Each structure stands twice: as structure tokens, then as C-alpha cells.
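Input record, target 12 of the design panel.
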């Protein structure tokens, strides 16, 4: 499995010929949208232009998961779970925020996208199940603050934590830097990686929680 960060809460996760993209963003956020093809797209808020830019993709239309439910797509097991996002981003009083657990290569991924909660509920934790790699927003403002993100990380106890949705060059959305999250988590700041390549066997060798910062590839 190869994981790259495209910016905000958008990730490209590849396994062989299969590619999953999360939260494709509009150019209106100030970043260059991802281009090309993908097999599956997971969207944490279908009404948010920071998450819902399906016009980025060319060729055969990907399978899109944009809400709660259980999906078996091209060998991926995806479970969408209702969550809370930015209170001001509700549409007609309805919150479209969804978090996900995804099983790929027998690795359990947790994608929290655009969530803004102080902690996960017991129901959300039970629905998500055990998570090996957690993608958690940490930039505050419209998503979890550093402190809230750390609380959720401690609830889930993944083997690898990858922070997403925080301040980066060119972004027009006001967000906090990742540094505060790393400080709150007690993790030393280190150089960001271009990508994370991981196998199930590699996860088994991890004894203590690891934090992996990725550099945006857009």
C-alpha cells in the first residue's frame, strides 16, 4: 500500500492497480486539484467544496461513497459513519459529515476527513472498529483542533497516525499549523515524507504508536 497526501483531507491510497482518493478539493481552496483517474472516491462532506470536486477525474467514472452505510467495492470494505462537522457548514440544518473505516490489503484505515468533534461517541467507535492507520484533521477552525484530534487519537489507539487538513502553502482556508498537534501528542517534529509505503507485515512490527507527517504532492 502506498499513501500520498494531496493536500487538505485529500489522499491517494494505492494497492496494486487499485486506487482510492479521499476528499478531492476544488481549485477555490487555493490548491491545484488532483487530476487523472481513480477507482474509488470517498467524500467526507458532499456539500463542501474542500471535499467534493468530482470534476477533477477523467476517464471512467469512479465509484463514489459519500455518506453512511456499508459498501463492498472492488475488494474494499468501506463503512461510512455519521459524524459532526463545522456547525456553520450545515446545509438546510443538515450535517452531511461522514467518517469512514476502510479495509484495504487487510489493513484497517480510519479516515476522519472534515470532522469537528471533541471526541468520538461510543457508537462511532464501535462502528469504526479497530484501526491500524488513522487520518485525522488537526487544523482547527472548521475541523478538529489539535487538542480534539489528540483526544480522538487516544480513543482509537491506531498504530500509525497521519495528520491531515492543516495549514499549507497556497491554501486560502485559515487553518492552524501541524506543529501544535505534534506538540499535544508529544511527538517530535520531523521531516515530512513524500509518501508512506506499508504492508500488513510491517504493521505487525510496530509496537508503539507512530506519527507520520506527509508533504503535499500537489
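The sequence produced for target 12 reads:
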Amino acid at each position: 500500500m502506498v499513501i500520498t497526501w494531496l493536500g487538505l483531507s485529500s489522499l491517494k491510497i494505492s494497492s496494486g492497480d487499485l486506487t482510492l482518493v479521499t476528499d478531492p478539493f476544488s481549485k477555490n481552496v487555493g490548491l491545484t486539484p488532483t487530476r487523472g483517474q481513480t477507482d474509488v472516491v470517498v467524500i467526507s462532506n458532499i456539500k463542501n467544496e474542500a471535499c467534493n470536486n468530482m470534476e477533477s477525474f477523467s476517464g471512467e467514472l469512479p465509484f463514489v461513497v459519500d455518506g453512511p452505510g456499508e459498501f463492498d467495492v472492488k475488494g474494499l470494505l468501506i463503512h461510512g459513519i455519521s459524524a459532526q462537522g463545522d456547525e456553520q457548514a450545515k446545509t438546510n440544518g443538515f450535517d452531511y459529515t461522514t467518517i469512514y473505516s476502510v479495509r484495504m490489503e487487510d489493513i484497517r484505515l480510519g479516515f476522519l476527513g472534515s470532522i469537528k468533534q471533541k471526541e468520538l461517541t461510543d457508537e462511532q467507535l464501535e462502528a469504526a472498529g479497530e484501526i491500524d492507520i488513522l487520518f485525522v484533521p488537526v487544523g482547527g477552525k472548521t475541523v478538529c483542533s489539535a487538542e480534539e484530534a489528540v483526544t480522538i487519537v487516544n480513543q482509537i489507539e491506531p498504530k500509525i497516525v497521519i495528520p491531515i487538513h492543516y495549514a499549507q502553502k497556497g491554501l486560502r482556508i485559515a487553518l492552524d499549523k501541524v506543529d501544535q498537534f505534534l506538540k499535544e501528542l508529544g511527538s517530535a517534529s520531523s521531516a515530512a515524507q513524500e509518501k508512506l509505503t506499508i504492508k500488513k507485515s510491517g504493521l505487525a512490527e510496530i509496537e508503539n504508536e507512530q506519527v507520520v507527517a506527509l508533504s503535499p504532492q500537489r
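The chain has a mean pLDDT of 94.
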